[in-house]
Amino acid sequence: MRVRARPVVAALVAGLLTVPVAACQGRGESHPDGFTVGLLLPGRALPRWERFDKPLIEKRLAERCPRCRVEYADAGNDPTRQRQQMTSMITRGVRVLILDAADTRALRSSIEEAHDAGVPVVAYDRLAEGPVSGFVSFDGARVGRLQAEALLTAMGDKAHGGNVVMMNGDPASPNAAWFRKGALSVLTGKVRIGRSYDTPGWSTENAHVNMSAAIAALRPEHIDGVLAANDAMAAGVISAFKGAHARTLPPVTGQDADLDAVRRIVRGEQYMTVYKPFRAEADAVAAMAVSLGRGGDPRDLATTAVDSPTTRHIPSVLLTPRAVTAGTVRQTLVKDGVYTMDQICGPVPRGRPPCSANRPHT
Length: 362
Prior knowledge:
- The protein has helices spanning about 10-15, 50-65, 80-90, 110-115, 140-155, 175-185, 205-220, 230-245, 260-265, 280-295, 330-335, 340-345, 355-360, and strands spanning about 1-5, 35-40, 70-75, 95-100, 120-125, 135-140, 165, 190-195, 225-230, 270-275, 305, 315-320, 320-325.
- By secondary structure, the protein is of the alpha/beta class.
- It has an eight-stranded mixed β-sheet, sandwiched between helices.
- Helix 4 (about 110-115) links the parallel strand 4 (about 95-100) and strand 5.
- Helix 2 packs across helix 10 (about 280-295) and helix 7 (about 205-220) crosses helix 8.
- The chain is globular and about 60 Å long.
């Protein structure tokens, strides 16, 4: 994926989040002044899709186009199922599609089908192949850099010459390569990469298996840090160390700010996560989808342009992610209303200090 920067001014970015909240114009399937937006998400393997993305996108679409209707489909991480869902939505007359592809290559034919039918597709979070009309996500290279920089900080004296295991994402996702490239731009020349794994499905179980193999090969005391590409995999990494009866846990990174991961951070089991403000992402994709549904030009909202393997100069919005450690939970996730401290603390197991003793300080 190549990113092509375009000059923008503050007013343009502000305009992205202030598209007039008005009834959509044109003839729709359910309302005379509205139209149907298809929302296709990959599945429930990652908590964020159902907890954050779906309700936030639906809310923002309703605010920007009160008479529009949202048709939602969950692919269950099955590309074949998602292709069927897309075809069904196109047949039923949706005017625009928001797609987070379960497999960015496998959905190419469906995106071409939508294009031929005059239905624009906005790629959400992951850049699918094919003639997409727009793309909304976070800067993946920066995600990887944030993880690597935090990992080196946590490794201390071992940040020079230490041994790191990389638990990369699903090889079918372009985001995985994007994150890895950003991380390696920081780690290369500073640490040794003892083992590096791709993790199908970004799954906890696959990460556990791979980390167990790394522990067996390298021994836990010779692993100074683990760059896990997301929180689900971080959970598998940590469980593998516990299963190996490691005396101490090395610093482990993550991404997505899942509640369980934030709890692990507060407990000192996971060092950091990358928080991607989902409200901003939902705002941006809703603005672009409504604009396209009204016949607008996505370049009017884009802040940059990216290239996919099949399509050049895709109008895009790439938002800025933020690193979260135990010391910054309050000023990021709690301040933004993602979680309360009571949610983060949760039930405290017997024998463990009260969560209040571990609560981060600003």
